[in-house]
Write a structure and sequence with these properties.
Layout: E1 29-35, H1 42-49, E2 59-65, E3 82-86, H2 93-103, E4 108-111, E5 116-118, H3 122-130, E6 136-145, H4 155-163, E7 177-178, H5 180-188, E8 209-211, H6 212-217, H7 229-239, E9 243-255, H8 259-262, H9 264-278, E10 298-303, H10 307-318, E11 325-330, H11 349-358, E12 364-367, E13 378-381, E14 387-389, H12 393-404, E15 408-412, E16 418-423, H13 424-433, H14 440-447, E17 450-454, E18 460-462, H15 481-494
Parallel strand pairs: 1-2, 1-4, 2-3, 6-9, 10-11, 10-13, 11-12, 15-17
Antiparallel strand pairs: 4-8, 5-9, 6-7, 13-16, 14-18, 15-16
């Protein structure tokens, strides 16, 4: 079997999909339609799906009723292979979509909301990408319309008009509102071709699709999310190696304005803490200093060596300009015991000292086996504890990777060993592309790009030379309170930073800074 085509970064333009209507599909598709009290629009959603150009024997529609009241029933006009399942545990779109994915029979999962009306070729347009590569994540084009006139039409009539290629004429004389913030970003990035790793931020689940294989290899939907689940899924799919495609021939009408358009400020305010915690690429939602999050931006993996050097390396990592990290230290921690022993002659003393140093440090994880994968955006693997990074080194190297969209940096040690700073999504893409015998480093260079530096040229120094500042507090007699106050005020004047305090009448978002999608957060 020939290896899949290689897409560099997110430049899906290197793929050539077949012309609609001029190819022979072989993959089965399950359209997952989550619904909660959409009894008024669901008949039209199913009417449009009943008129698809995709072969009916390869098309399944799975309606997932998220405890609607009254319970959702299937209308008469619907695709030939339509099933209805009901949510019994949990609630929300993410939960319903995941339940649908697990119950689906198709090779391809196509998410489709219960207030969408498809053009005849919508499913076909999505499916053609999945016949090219198993890691494509196509998104479709949509316009928002007032559905009032449509809802007075018999669904059978709508089905017949869609089948006749007349979906574009169903709303004459009405305003057709684009999904503007999405269209704006598509325009800036040549329909995501130049967006690189940032393309995942614009995964819109109401018209998205993915191979079942890619979905199962990803973390999938976070079933605890009530909003923003499609952006989190975009991150999960990117981490599994996905490339995000814009197909403007996968067209749909959105029957009414979405909640995000109607209540953008409230939705953003609700989403911010959830997405900040779970999606490292949404860095504008994260603090620059002083915070760690559930899913870190960077994970550093090292094997414990002699205690003094190991502690100095780990402290150097925690002392750096990237607080948003996890340090994973691999060692035989199970050998640390509470049996009677002369403390300084303990056979496992070196291990014990490292263990106790970080047992209660929340950013350090002590494991016995190196992790095979990571949920972090980047992973730095150190070969030993002979070198330690200066405070600015990791932030500078990560910025270097972000600017270039590259997949890795190789940091050569004088000993011949090397540290590797790697983009997790790039490693996953390579794993999807590689066949037996393929050189994965060559594939990584081809699909993302790799560059090497001598480690000591980019902020790494001999471990015994790295100084981590500690507190000093010598014993001394009590100072006169007035003298102490003078020192207090002097220290505060010396540390004054105008960038951290906004004048009461100043713009709350200086320099035009806004949220991820051009809106104030």
């Amino acid at each position: 079997m020939a290896r899949q085509p290689v897409v560099r970064h997110n430049d899906w333009g290197s793929l050539t999909p077949p012309t609609l209507g001029d190819w022979e599909p072989t993959l089965s598709v399950t359209v997952v339609v989550p619904t909660f009290n959409y009894q008024h629009t669901l008949p039209y959603v199913l009417a449009g799906l009943a008129a698809q150009s995709y072969p009916s024997h390869l098309l399944e529609v799975l309606v997932v009723d998220d405890q609607s009241s009254p319970a959702q029933e299937l209308p008469e006009v619907r695709p030939e292979h339509t099933r209805l399942i009901r949510v019994e545990e949990g609630w929300g779109r993410a939960n319903a979509c995941h339940l649908g994915a697990m119950a689906a029979d198709g090779d391809v999962l196509h998410w489709y909301d219960a207030d969408m009306l498809a053009y005849r070729e919508e499913v076909e347009a999505h499916a053609r990408w999945h016949h090219l590569v198993d890691y494509a994540v196509p998104g479709g084009h949509k316009l928002f319309v007032d559905p009032a006139g449509l809802l007075a039409t018999d669904p059978a009539v709508v089905r017949d008009r869609v089948a006749a290629g007349e979906a574009g004429d169903l709303f004459p004389g009405q305003e057709h509102e684009p999904h503007q913030w999405v269209e704006d970003y598509w325009a800036k990035t040549d329909d995501l071709r130049t967006a690189g790793p940032r393309a995942q931020r614009f995964h819109i689940g109401m018209t998205g699709s993915v191979t079942r294989a890619l979905y199962l290899d990803s973390d999938g939907f976070d079933r605890t999310l009530r909003l923003g689940e499609d952006m989190h899924l975009g991150h999960s799919l990117a981490q599994a190696g996905g490339v995000f495609v814009v197909d403007r021939e996968a067209r749909s009408w959105h029957l009414g304005r979405s909640q995000v358009l109607r209540r953008a400020e409230q939705v953003n305010r609700f989403n911010d803490p959830y997405l900040a915690d779970l999606v490292p690429t949404m860095r504008p939602k994260r603090n620059r200093r002083g915070r760690a999050y559930q899913v870190p931006y960077l994970e550093v993996v090292l094997r414990a060596g002699p205690a003094d050097e190991t502690i100095r390396v780990v402290d150097s990592l925690l002392d750096g300009d990237v607080p948003d990290l996890r340090v994973t230290v691999v060692g035989p921690w199970g050998s640390v015991h509470d049996e009677r022993v002369q403390p300084v002659e303990d056979p496992v003393l070196e291990t014990r000292l490292v263990h106790r140093s970080y047992l209660h440090e929340p950013r350090v994880r002590l494991v016995e086996t190196a992790p095979a994968t990571s949920d972090a955006e980047f992973v730095l693997t150190l070969p030993d504890v002979t070198l330690a990074p200066l405070p600015a080194a990791l932030a500078a190297l990560l910025d270097d990777l972000e600017r270039t969209h590259h997949g890795a940096r190789v940091l050569a040690y004088d000993s011949g060993a090397a540290a590797r700073l790697e983009r997790t999504s790039a490693l996953a893409r390579v794993a999807r592309l590689a066949d037996d015998g393929d050189d994965r480093e060559t594939l990584l260079e081809e699909s993302f790009g790799v560059k090497a530096y001598p480690a000591t040229d980019v902020g790494f120094v001999a471990v015994d030379l790295r100084v981590v500042e500690r507190f000093t507090l010598g014993a001394r007699p009590a100072m006169d309170p007035d003298k102490s106050e003078n020192r207090l005020r002097k220290a505060l004047r010396g540390a004054a930073d105008p960038s951290v305090v906004r004048a009461p009448d100043a713009d709350p978002e200086p320099d035009g800074k806004r949220g991820l999608f051009g809106r104030r957060r």
